[in-house]
Amino acid sequence: MKKMWKLLYCALFFLLLCLPAALFPFFQNDASLEKRALAEFPSYLSQGRLNLQYSDQFESWVSDHLPLRAQLLTASNTLKSELLHGQSSNVIVGKEGWLFFASEAGDYLGTNAMTEDQLKAFAVTLSLMQERVEENGGRFSFVPMPNKSSVYPEYMPAQYRRAEESNLRRIQALLPAYGVRFTDMLELLTARKEEGLYHRRDSHWNYLGALYGSDAILDSLGREHPDHSNVQYAVERSWRGDLDKLLLPAGGVLDDQMSFQTEHAKFRFSYPQGVADAQAQLAVFMSDREERDELFSTKNLERKDGSNLFMARDSFGRALLPWMIDSYENATFRRADHPDLSSLKEGTDVVYEIAERNLNRVIESAPFLFAPVRSEIPADWTLAQEKLTPRCDRAGYGFHLYGALPEQAELTDGRIYLLLEQEGRQLCLEAFPIHESKLLETEGSKGYSAYLSSELGLSGSWTVTVVTGQTAWTCDPIVF
Question: Is the full-model pTM beyond 0.90?
Fold first, then answer.
């Protein structure tokens, strides 16, 4: 009898081991629930050679496509969050059912604090963008969107100790000195937080928060709009939050969403073309499905004022779409870390919206914007003994000149100039104070990056001097 129970136990054990393989043809894991691309089935060969990572890739594929994965994750995360009150699936479980994105923790705890030089580089980068927009006849507004934990810190777990300062607050305190126009969403949303402007189980604001936010953005751009300070709305339990999906992918808790009795302007999509139902397509772009929403343009059929908007946005910008479409005859929305300002129509207003948790991306690489020509640069500098070794990449538009600065370099106001000289000809340009870590394939926090237009007529060998503060570095001659 005892032997029979042992045999049954072994048989059950091996049956459970084989069960996932047996269920593979009948169950498919839904990638949309986890908001990421699932691992693809690996190949034995990679670039004509034996794939040495095959076993690891196969393990990832099996893990991502495991039958009943969503149900197992839901059960595991429910145990961790409800009973153990721990972090699960990149989600911080807060008080009273509030959820927070785990990537907010660095901002909340102050563990990712920018250096003073990085803050200056941030402000200079935005000032150069704004300069380009205003020279083109438009207005510029930088819109940093606060993390949910920055507006509702009282719902964060008690073990998370909030830092006295954050990158967002420090950046906003510095921007006025550089003349950068920004929309202070942190102050706006904190002042009205009792109205409930963020979802409890989503990392973003709700439609009410976005409505107030759109008014503030339009105010900063000088655009007229209806007064929504006392807007009437209905609350519907209809929103499935992104954090709730991460925590409980097999089925969780619906969140509140606001419904306004508002008539929006009629519009059509100028890109992509051929959209039969513009409102239905807009609903897709406003959802968290994130399907082909990288770039699209609209034409307001009720405006004939020739107004143009370009908005670089992330997922927070979804809820702003109908209000921004109402306010401009032509509007273009690009999902990107940087706005592309190289080919703006004259008079185009630019909104640059990015979440607080992604602010570091602003200075990870330079936006595509030609370096402005300067008539003069600070003259009281001394020449450093150390030489720099810039890189120069050729492209259809011209050249990309970039490199690293010594980490001990003092950036003073953060501005960096390139002095190019060739047989009596002298050209002074201002570069972005950005270290192109990916292109240089080295870590560093100080560098310079400049896109040089072919219209500058650069050819042959040039001497380049990099100037910042009271120090200048020479470089070996560069051949354009």
Answer: no
